[in-house]
Design goal:
mainly alpha, Arc Repressor Mutant, subunit A
Length: 120
């Protein structure tokens, strides 16, 4: 499976009402967060919940944010006071659970082989 397909598979596993950062996914796959962002920007697959992947501040660029607002509202994610995104500390998915689900779906993930940060 290529990296793009793996990124999209992990994004599909992020629970409703939760978000992860580009870096969270990048860490699981031992790749650059910018590459995750690029894959998300190029995503044309309708079943990939793009609004659940944000930057490390919980924000999305304006052209994406406008499309995410309805989804965030529907899933109960409140905007930060600055209106740029959601409070990632409040809404971040449990990364250990997500990593386990990702490995169950995709097999061993290269970023998790020697990394305990997702399991503690």
């Amino acid at each position: 499976m290529d990296l793009r397909t793996s990124v999209y598979a992990i994004v599909r596993l992020v629970p409703r009402g939760s978000v992860v950062s580009y870096g969270d996914i990048a860490g699981m796959l031992a790749m650059s967060p910018r590459m995750v962002g690029r894959f998300m920007a190029l995503c044309e697959e309708e079943d990939v919940p793009f609004w659940r992947v944000v930057n490390s501040y919980g924000d999305l660029p304006p052209h994406v944010r406008v499309h995410a607002l309805e989804h965030w509202h529907e899933e109960g994610l409140a905007l930060k006071p600055n209106g740029l995104g959601v409070a990632i500390r409040r809404y971040r998915a449990d990364l250990a659970v997500l990593a386990d689900a990702a490995e169950a779906a995709l097999g061993p993930l290269p970023g998790l082989e020697d990394d305990d940060s997702f399991t503690e």
